[in-house]
Automatic annotation (TrEMBL):
Domain of life: Bacteria
Domain GP-PDE: 3-238
Organism: Brachybacterium kimchii
Designated name of the protein: Glycerophosphodiester phosphodiesterase
Signal peptide extent: none
Pfam families in UniProt: GDPD
Cited InterPro entries: GP_PDE_dom (IPR030395), PLC-like_Pdiesterase_TIM-brl (IPR017946)
Entries under SUPFAM superfamilies matching the protein: PLC-like phosphodiesterases
């Protein structure tokens, strides 16, 4: 079976990353799942951005171009302009898109402080209830404490532990939390790690794949999901149709 396709930060090659436009683009591009990154603002609001600051993603003409998400309020973040006139979304708004389209979502908790609130929001929106064996939402994170906090609040929401390189501490964490999946960096992925994960009962996500060679290797290794900035390209490449060269 071919792996399912996860739209990275919505569809980061098709629209400004982690914006509402990107998540709509991911849906339109046929992503099987979406992925977003969550931080907590200074006044306790769940906001969508990959970095800890707005510095990299703020547009040149943004009224506010620098600052840490943890130090900025939601009102201040509302003044930030992103490329193409986009704004910093809330997690609620991203979930509206995912739920409206019926597309499951990986919610990557970037700040430990956001973990409990994220898990509770997913519960409040009934995204902790699987239908026909398909989970509508996952919580994923590089941070062990974020995963532990999420598990404590919502034990029914599946977890994925994320890492660049899977060392013994990582495998111990996945075993401790009984994570349903592990998410491994494709460029640093030994063949043996996929087999080890499957033997332990974890699904395997490989990230981030935008070229044909690593995509084909991921398929050969038998990973369960692949994360790409361009879900439409990944779909064509998996189908063996259209232009599948490096993006």
């Amino acid at each position: 079976m071919q792996p399912k396709i996860v739209g990275h930060r919505g569809a980061a090659r098709l629209a400004p990353e982690n914006t509402l436009r990107a998540f709509r683009a991911g849906v339109d591009a046929g992503a099987d799942l979406l992925e977003c990154d969550v931080h907590l603002s200074a006044d306790g609001q769940l906001v969508i951005m990959h970095d800890t600051t707005i510095d990299r993603t703020a547009a040149e003409d943004s009224p506010l171009r620098s600052g840490s998400l943890a130090d900025l309020t939601r009102a201040e973040l509302d003044t930030v302009l992103l490329p193409d006139g986009e704004r910093v979304p809330s997690l609620e708004a991203v979930l509206d898109i995912a739920q409206g389209a019926g597309v499951p979502i990986y919610v990557e908790v970037k700040a430990v402080a956001a973990a409990e609130q994220t898990a509770q929001l997913l519960v409040d929106r009934d995204l902790d209830q699987s239908a026909d064996g398909v989970a509508p939402a996952w919580i994923i994170s590089f941070k062990p404490e974020a995963l532990r906090a999420a598990r404590a609040v919502a034990p029914q929401i599946p977890l994925s532990a994320v890492t660049h390189v899977a060392d013994e501490d990582f495998w111990a964490l996945a075993a401790e939390l009984r994570t349903e999946a592990v998410s491994l960096q494709m460029s640093k992925l030994p063949d043996a790690d996929v087999a080890r994960a499957h033997e332990a009962g974890h699904l395997v996500n490989a990230w981030t794949i935008n070229d044909e060679a690593p995509l084909h290797r991921a398929v050969e290794l038998g990973v369960d999901t692949v994360t790409s900035d361009d879900p439409a390209w990944a779909r064509r490449a998996l189908a063996g149709r259209g232009s599948v060269g490096a993006r």
